[in-house]
């Protein structure tokens, strides 16, 4: 699986899309689904709309984890992974973040459906945020439609629509 991320629509998006014919590759664009759909061959399937977001608040209002839950934090080079383990030992929530020279980027923040509305996602975000070395670096993420509303309540703003396309497996 490979991902190509483009900050804007350009000839590179079209070139990569025309060259790739195998599934499990992803084209990502800071732009609308319509823009991406018009730039790629018909074999590409455009996924539901997402949003590229920026944190405008600096601190999260976190509460202790519910009874029986525990947080694990793992570091591998510039990547930090946070996992909230449920009382039964299953994965209740998780996410990753990495800091590069000019940004702190959150990725794949998810709370399992049976564990939502318990503050676990906020706990993951706070744990990942504690790994930031430069508070001056902007915090960025890509959110789904549902996530957009949740992050907005945490002080995030939408910078741009974010489109993704992939070739489905036959």
UniProtKB/TrEMBL annotation:
Domain of life: Bacteria
Domain N-acetyltransferase: 44-170
Family annotation (InterPro entries): Acyl_CoA_acyltransferase, GNAT_dom
Protein name per Swiss-Prot or TrEMBL: GNAT family N-acetyltransferase
Species whose genome carries this gene: Dyella koreensis
Lineage of origin: Bacteria, Pseudomonadati, Pseudomonadota, Gammaproteobacteria, Lysobacterales
